[in-house]
Amino acid sequence: MRSVLKTLVSIVLVLLAVALIYSRYRSKPAEMALPSSGLPVYTYKLVNTYPHDPGAFTQGLVFENGFLYESTGIEGESTLRKVELETGMVVKVHRLPDELFGEGITIFGERIVQLTYTSRVGFVYDRATFELLREFAYPTQGWGITHDGTHLIMSDGTSELHFLDPESLEEVGTIQVHADGIPVEGLNELEFVRGEILANVRPTHRIARISPSTGEVTGWIDLKWLRSSQDPGGKWGILNGIAYDSQNDRLFITGKHWPKIFEIDVMPLERY
Predict the structure, then answer these.
(1) Burial class (CB in 10 A: 0-12, 13-18, 19+), 62
(2) Residue 189, domain extent
(3) Does some domain include residue 16?
(4) How many contiguous H segments (helices) and E segments (strands) does the chain have?
(5) Angle at the Cα of 100 (from 79 to 95), degrees rounded to 5?
(6) How many CB atoms lie under 10 A from the CB of residue 218?
(7) Do the domain assignments include residue 249?
(8) pTM for the full model?
(9) In the chain, pLDDT over 90 holds for what percent of residues?
(10) Tens digits of residue pLDDT in 40-96
């Protein structure tokens, strides 16, 4: 009887751990208290809409030379993809081992860098072929990643951003992201746009505009109306996915299990 009880307790603990992990990803967007006094708030103008695989559990998104590159998550479902923007067609895919949970990606030169969630291992691929070139380790969770042309910039779900050398993949610095002197937790998918870092802030509908030199939040992009107008039933997952077309100055956003990718222009809304 005692062995049976131990087995039952073990099963319950495992189920609770799985539930906690999935709650991070499948929870509905919510407006948590974000420090915002005096910071500008921006809204959006919808420019265009593109199809997106609703089965994609989007963890990272990049635009390069006319294509989207996407990382998807969930153990047993995690992939690296090359996607046609106009059609949403997946034209190349690499599947991660079943035990890994794919996270953010960025493209640095001819290489794609992809993170994983709790495994503390990342991958470097050839951009053209998706051939695995190397693995690397990091001491935190992996959430989002981008680059500023000099360093890779990585989030781990806290208020910290980590700067990595793109060759050695070793950490060379950190900043704490803050607004009104208060740390901003839940930094997720990242994109470097026109000299600033854009970050999804989980589990909100907002994107933080961050100074890469100081970590100061300079404003919030509020996308709750986009989400509510497109998904009145609240069936989509959380906002997560920012990509920038630097050649044509286009900004794309999506989320987990969203059936669409939206091209938007960011516009001032008000000041709190």
Answers:
(1) buried
(2) 38-271
(3) no
(4) 2, 22
(5) 25
(6) 13
(7) yes
(8) 0.85
(9) 76
(10) 999 999 999 999 999 999 999 999 999 999 999 999 999 999 999 999 999 999 999
Q: Coil, helix or strand for 131?
A: coil
Q: Which residue type is seen at 176?
A: Q
The set of residues, in sequence order, having a beta carbon less than 8 Å from that of 106 and lying 6+ positions away, is 60, 62, 112, 113, 145, 146, 147, 152, 190
Has residue 19 been placed in a domain? no
Nearest to 205 by CA among 179, 186, 177: 186
CB atoms closer than 10 angstroms to residue 41: 15
Q: Give the pair of three-digit tokens for residue 99.
A: 């035990």
Which stretches does DSSP call E strand in 130-170?
A: 132-137, 145-147, 152-155, 160-164
Encoded tokens for 170: 């070793």
DSSP label of 143 = -
Token couple for 2: 């005692």
Contact criterion met (CB below 8 Å) for 184 and 35: yes
| Separation between Cα atoms, residue 249 and residue 148, nearest integer Å | 16
> If you count them, how many residues does the chain have?
272
Please check whether residue 210 is in contact with residue 218, taking contact to mean a CB–CB distance below 8 angstroms. yes
| 204 in any annotated domain | yes
On whether the CB atoms of residues 269 and 222 are closer than 8 A, the answer is yes
Mean of pLDDT over the chain: 87
